[in-house]
Amino acid sequence: MFGSKRLLTICSTVLLAAAVLTGCERKEAGAGAATGAAADSGTGPIKVGVAASLSGSEATWGRSTQVGAEMAAEEVNSHGGINGRKIELVVYDDKGQSQEMGLVVTRMIKSDKVVAILGEVASGLTMAGARIAQPEGIPMVSHAATNPDVTAIGDKIFRVCFTDDFQGFVTAKFASENLKAKKAAILYDQAQAYSVGLKDTFKDSFTKMGGTIASEQAYTGGDQDFSAQLNNIKSSGAEVLFIPGYYTEVGNIALQADRLGMKIPMLGGDGWDSPQLAKIAGKAIEGHYYANHVSPEAPDPALQKFVAAYKAREGQTPDAIGVLAYDAAHVLFAAMGKAKSLSGDDIAKELAATKDFPGASGMITLDEKRNATKPAVILQMKDGKPTYFATITPN
Ligand code: PHE
Fold first, then answer.
1. Which positions ≥6 away from 83 have C-beta within 8 Å?
2. Are residues 192 and 263 in the same domain?
3. What is the pLDDT of residues 159-203, one digit of tens each?
4. Least packed by Cβ within 10 Å: which of 55, 202, 258, 315?
5. Prediction pTM value
6. What is the extent of the structural domain holding 312?
7. Could you tell me the distance, in angstroms and rounded to a whole number, from the CA of residue 173 to the centre of ligand 1?
């Protein structure tokens, strides 16, 4: 049964998160008592924070984030670390909640004295953390947050993935050109910055391409019943349903759409990317499409090397988040290695200069807005697995 399986997954990630937290607590003296981040001590391991949703409804992303970052840190450490010092990752569970994200970022900076932070996946959580890290002068590199506003928070906030200006265009182009849809319906999560933003950019691009929005419906993350919205969409005459949501809700929406006898193709963004999607939705998700950062099937040698190492370690193929976490960590560690000192200013200066960095997810160059420009792939769900369908390049 799905229910019991999911419970098991959550229990094991909670145990893991608990172990990580205990590990970190050991090294702390008076959490929250410190005022102002002290500079790195100059000796011993260099601490880098990782904010990950190790529990909650996006738990698969927390695990992939942690594993990707750890694999990069282990590689650098096995080659002598950074200027002779080892990297020590301080991993916290933000539980997929903004408030918790704020707490863990504060804790990393004030108590653990991290020199930089990796994370988060969700745009809303990344923004919550960035609003704390930026005024503290601590660089933050998100591997997967795509909302355009994330890096606009300040000059210490970076990302190694494309933004939703591009992802909205990519999904609209696919709906219009490949699915030949003239009328689209949208069902989005009004509580997630990512979902609201991607809904807007999709709508903008799709209407510019000559399409119309037949129905625009909203839900709130955690909702269980989508029948009112789906009935409205069903009678709207839409030829495609765009769902810019996260996998737990998308899985439930697909199940309910199937029960209502809906036959139109469903299309989403990177938020669908989790092995849980097919576990929740079963055959109801078969044949549907989503945009993503990478296809683990792509023949690129750097990607395949990482995929093989990840599989050997975790017993499963990485999702895009694992690949991006590995790349974000390597980009950060390379900048730390080049920086004049480990001050936030010096690390940020080197991060900003990132150019043609050969990542497992592709070449990474950060522009003046601290964003990367990369192609996107469209995946189709086949036999419960995301399968490569097409690549869409930035211009
Ligand atoms: N782009 C999503 C966000 O900004 C997060 C995400 C990235 C999810 C990649 C899955 C895969 O919230």
1. 337
2. yes
3. 999 999 999 999 999 999 999 999 999 999 999 999 999 999 999
4. 315
5. 0.90
6. 14-162+298-374
7. 20
